[in-house]
Structures are given as structure tokens and as C-alpha cells.
Amino acid sequence: MARDSNTRNWWIPESIWSFCDPNHMSSWKGSHRSWGAWAKLSSTAMNEFGVLNNRKRALIALIHSFVFLAIAIHGFMSPKAGVLRGNGTLGDFILIEIYIIVASILAWLVTLSRCLRERVYFALCATSASFGLLRTIFGDASIPIAQHMRVIMLSSAVAVGVIILRSFSRAVAEEALPE
Known about the structure:
Radius of gyration: 20 Å
Order of helices and strands: HHHHHHHH
Distance between the termini: 67 Å
Number of strands: 0
Strand content: under 5%
Largest sheet: none
Helix content: 55-70%
Structural class: mainly alpha
């Protein structure tokens, strides 16, 4: 455990402070140089992806978003009674565990993200997973907006994912014309 009076707290392990830069040489504070909202909107900060840092990762994330959007849309046809209403089955409890794990990992990816687009993408996905968790626990009768919010959040995540994927567009080779 590191204790630095300037930047670190004594209860946070040293490994937490050094996971954010691409070559793993800077401290956490060094790799996240600017936290101001205005700095996040600059062109250099907008292109520094932390997690979705290449076209393949962005495409895989976008495919996942499409799949979970289809699952969320399918959820309109199968209403949830909720575990707290006494109708909980083993499948519901497994689904709750999956939602907790997925929402936690997506929230962690929000903290790993560097640019605003990437943070918004993972925040939308984490919010959608959280609404799925609430829907499974409380049911559609208690929280009727949860179904709609999952679809809205995932639709927005797909839109942001397309923008992120387009930022990695491949260069088109031009054919050289004879003079």
C-alpha cells in the first residue's frame, strides 16, 4: 500500500494507481492529465481511447450492443414479475448475478475510459444493465419505465458505438492515374 500525501490515499493499493496508460509506465494521475470538462472536449482528448483503442475492439463492442439491444427489445414481449413479488426462480437469481457482474464491469470500464465518447458509450451500457437488474428484482409492475430505459440506453449506445467505429475508418487507397 502506497501513501503519498499529495495524490494518493493510504487505503488504496498501489496497483490501482498504475493501470491506465498504454505503456503502463505512468501513474494513474499522470495518465489522466486533464479531468476538466473543457479538456475532454478538445480534439486531442477526444481521440485518446483507453479501452476501444482500435477498430476491432470498437466493432466487437458495437456487435455486443446490437445483440443486447435485440434482447432488450425482446423483453417487451416477456413481462417480468420480479423476484420481490415471490415469483423468483433459479433462473431469475442467476440473471440477477449476471446483471450485477455486467453492470460492475461496465462501470469499471467507464473509469478506464479516457475520452468523452468512450465514457458515454460505457455509461449508457452500464445504465442499461442496471435497469435490467432493477427490472428483474422489482418487476415491470413496480418499475414500468425500466423496459423502455433499457432500449433507449442501448439504442443510444449503438449510436455512440457507430460514431466510435467511424473514428477508426480505414483509409481508402487511391488509384494513381498516369500523367
